[in-house]
Structure formats: C-alpha cells, structure tokens
Amino acid sequence: MICVLCLLLLLCVPTVLFAADDIQIRRVFGPEHPCKYKHPASITQLTNGDLYLTYYGGAGEYAIDTAIWGARGKKGQTRWTQPKVIADTPFKSEGNSVVWQGPDDCVWLFYLTRYGETWSTSRIKAKISKDGAKTWSDPVMIADELGMMVRAHPIVLHDGDYLLPIYHETGHDREEVGADSTSLFLRFNPKTKTWTETNRIRSRIGNIQPSVVQITDDYLVCYCRRGGGYGPCKDGWLVRAESRDGGRTWSDGKETKFPNPNSATDFIKLQNGHLLLVYNDSMTDRTPLTVVVSTDNDKTYPHRRNICEGRGPFAYPVAIQTQDGKIHIIFTSHNRTVINHAVFEESAILSADKR
Prior knowledge:
The radius of gyration is 19 Å and the shape is globular. The chain is mainly β and 355 residues long. It has a five-stranded antiparallel β-sheet with strand order 1-2-29-28-27, with no helix packed on it. The chain is built from one helix and 29 strands. β9 (107-114) and β10 form a beta hairpin.
C-alpha cells in the first residue's frame, strides 16, 4: 500500500490519506498550521476520552524560535483544535515533547530545552495539568545533566511507580549520535514525588530513545534506536535490553534482527498482553513504516504489516491504544512538516499474512 500524502489547506480538518478496509491514515497538521517545522509529535488519550497531541515546532530543528504546541481532538470527532503554545522558554529552543495521561488524573508534559548548539546540551523539564490539558503548571527540571532527552511515554509499573524512558546523547556533531550515548529511565514514586535514575544501557555504537513494556512484576523489555551516523549502513539494528528486577537495573543493549536507519521507534503493551513494535524496516531509509506484533511475550514477532510505504520519510512514530481497543499511531512526513494519524484494530496486523 502506498501512503499518498497530499497537501490540502484545510485548517485542522484531517484529510484522509489512505483508507483500507481496516486501516485509516489522516493528515492532521501541515505547514499551513503554526510552525512549518513539526518534529516528533506525541499523543495521549485523556480521562474524558479526548485525544491530546503535542509537537515542537518553529522555523527548523535548531531554530531559536521553537516551542511546544498542543492541540485537542474531542472524543468521537476527527477535527482538531488549532495548535497553541503550551511551553516556551525565553531565548532558548525547545525539543522533543511527550504528553501522557497519568493514573492520578494529572496530565504530564515532558519536554526538552536546549542550552547550546546541539542536543547534547539539552535538559528535561516537566509540567502537569490538573484540568485535562486546558492549563499547565510552571515547569520543573527533572533531569539537569546536559544531554538528557525524552521521546517515549512512561508506563505505570505493577508496584504503582512510573517509569519514564529517557536517554543521554553525547557529541557535538549534528550528523552523528555518539557511540557513548546511552538509554536509561527515571522512576517516579507517586507517594514521595521523587525521581530516581537507573543505570545506563550501553551498546556497540550507542543507543537512544528507549521505549519499554513490563511483562511480569520483575521482567521488563525495552527497544532503543541505534547510535552512529545517518548515512546508509549494513549493520544498523534496533537495540534491545531487559530488566530482571522490576526496572531498577538494566542489561547492556544487544542488537536485534530489526533493521534501523538511525530512526525512532515505539514499543507498547496492548490491553490483551500482546506487544506491538512500530519502526522503519530498513537500514537506509525511513520507509516503510512497519508494525509487528508478538503474542508470546517478545519471543517472536510473526505478525507484520507495512502501514506506510513508498517514498518517505515516514518517521518518529508514537503508538497508543485507546479505551475502545483501537491502536493509534502518529508519525511525521514531508521533511517534518506534516503530522499524520493512523487508526486501526490489532486484527489489521494479525490478519496481514492472510492477505
């Protein structure tokens, strides 16, 4: 299937890009909406059933005018509200954002502020909303070491703590992720309101942007984007690590069978316990955008389907499962100027091999 991305100037009314009998992809925002540049979007379902989307936008990736923007998709509707600024540090650039509906009725916003010329000078901030993402608190710094970044949703652990995937990016070359870049996690105790840092996941050429699931009380698995350069390679793979003590300590990262062109991925646990991984199934290009499902706790991934393919890039996917069981994946295209929204049932992936 080819995801045909056409530019139609329809303010906040998503355009249907691809509609199979079981997958629908809509174009949500484009360059005609605030900020031509729209880098990785994040999405969550709020307690009331609305969807809430964030992205960082400005004139370009390293522009000084970047800010965090938010928009709402009301329950049962396809129209989104006009994006508005929800975080902006004077005279500094903002970066990746993660929006997440917590179990305590707080909506969390995690995001970056960059203090120098590259992402290795960023720090992680957080805001909360107690009124369903209508208003936001002042920011607090939750990781002040330079180079700390965020991209994937937290999860609620079986003991009630929150586990936030983060990463430490090194180096000052904008075309290379340093080999000593590492993934790690911040663990939040809702009772004491404190954050604790785990050990760091190291691998052959570095790794960043982990996403995590909990399989048992003790056993957790994460997948990470590889480090290194952005050019074609023959040995670029997603990196996998695991914890055997409830997410407190982590193994070294091991390369997997999943190719990775130095691009983001996401990994979530579905309501039925199945695991879903979305990634670019290539070592050279950010296309196709592929979804695989494991029904045996990460042992195998026999179910696979490309949800977007052809001329890309289709990149920076973020996946959630909403209350009704549907899977939502947002991703960017058109050189990070367009945000797209795919919606489907798990059966669209499970039945792909029967097509």
